[in-house]
Design a protein that fits this description.
Blueprint (H helix, E strand, L loop, with lengths): L8 E3 L1 H9 L6 H14 L5 E4 H15 L1 H12 L4 E4 L3 H14 L3 H12 L4 E3 L13 E2 L5
Parallel strand pairs: 1-2, 1-4, 2-3, 4-5
Length: 145
Amino acid sequence: MLNNPKEPLYIDTNVFLNAILYDPATMPSAKQAKSFLTRITSGEVAGITSVLTWDEFVWVLRRELGRDEANEKGKEFLNFPNLTFKGLTTSIVHHAQDFLARYDLRPRDALHLVTAMENGAMQIVSFDGDFDVVTEIPRIDLMKV
């Protein structure tokens, strides 16, 4: 469940993608993602994510929706209300390498994890169960909220 709504939550790429790529009337994850993202836009929840999220977001949309629509959605994403983008640093990459080995995470997941931790996020909001093996920071599964 969500902790203090003023503590930042790290938002994984798949939350944004579910809200755009799927129909909330037929896909429960899309409905949950849209509802949660509304809480960020309203300022009810403090959201942070990595600049890497933009890369993943646009790359998937380009493949699924085409270049022009992906470019437009990418511009909109960069202006998402009440979402703070955090940069990658050499320190984050070095720590991600440690988590990659410790938990057998994919490199991008390790980068997301450490970006969250180094920027004060208390939880990761994601549909990705790969984060469940991590003991340092819990995952919020929107399908269970």
